[in-house]
Amino acid sequence: MKINRTTIASTLVACTITSGANAVDELPQKQWQFDVALDGKPIGFHTFELQQDGPKQVLTTEASFDVKFLFVTAFRYRHQNTEIWNDDCLLSIDASTDSNGKQLEVRGEIGDGGFDLRSAEGSEVLPSCVQTFAYWNPAVLESARLLNSQTGVYEDVTVTFEGPDQVSVAGEPVDAFRYRLSAKAGDITLWYSSEDKTWLGLEAPAKGGRKIRYQAVVVPDMESSQQIVASRN
Question: Which residues lie across from 218 on neighbouring strands?
């Protein structure tokens, strides 16, 4: 994927890595930065940062959405999450969500008998290799179950390849493959670079038949391990 653009001020998030990730190696990190729209109207941003810690990967993510009606905030959403991965399996998760005043937390780590999970749903032991809805990792396209980092529900999913497509990244068209991930909340459309399977965007259902769209502003260049940083007019 080749996009020649200059640097912008990021409107999306820089997440704080928790103490368990303080030893992250000083290697070039990969970033995804998305502007988020509801039925075409901007509501906020969602960012992802991925760093290497020896054989492990540390992902930090933050989302901030505000849906306004007549200049009044009708819905407010904040989400922060730190995940540690190894060999496409989740080692730990530490997620907090404020969904319009409703506080949700999901905590978990790998244990002797599997993945020990604690959430509003209670405590349970999941299989030893669990994956979240980690769209940044194309391995999720092969998964039959994914952990919802907001609710703590371990959901059945199906993934269907829908064919070649094009998607805009920072205003530039990029050749992509389109997938449909069917989950409890509905069908999620995902786009990945046809060159290297870099995640490029998504569209998901919202209440009332509305649509949430993630428009990529920054994505990693997987071949050079450098950031593709875009400028917006």
Answer: 33, 229
Tokens 């994914």 locate to 146
Helix (H, G, I), strand (E, B) or coil at 130: coil
**Residue that is written with structure tokens 């409107």 in the block:** 11
pTM reported for the whole predicted model:
0.82
* Single-letter amino acid, residue 158: T
Q: Are 47 and 32 in contact (CB under 8 A)?
A: yes
User: Does any domain span residue 187?
Assistant: yes
Partnered with residue 169 across adjacent β-strands are 172
- Give the structural domain span for 120: 29-220
Q: CA–CA separation, 198 vs 31, rounded Å?
A: 11
Please report the pLDDT score of residue 70 as a whole number. 79
Q: Say which residues have a Cβ less than 8 Å from residue 76's Cβ, sequence separation at least 6.
A: 65, 66, 67, 98, 100, 101
| Cα–chain center distance at 65 | 14
- How far apart CA 212 and CA 205 sit, in angstroms, is 6
Looking at residue 41, which CATH number applies to its domain?
2.50.20
User: Measuring CA to CA, which residue among 137, 213, 123, 205 is closest to residue 168?
Assistant: 213
Buried b (16+ CB within 10 A) or exposed e, 147-185: bbbbbbbbeebebeeeeebebebbeeebebbbbebebee
The pair of structure tokens assigned to 161 is 């390849």
Number of domains observed in the structure of the chain: 1
For residue range 199-225, list pLDDT tens digits in order. 999 999 998 889 999 999 999 974 433
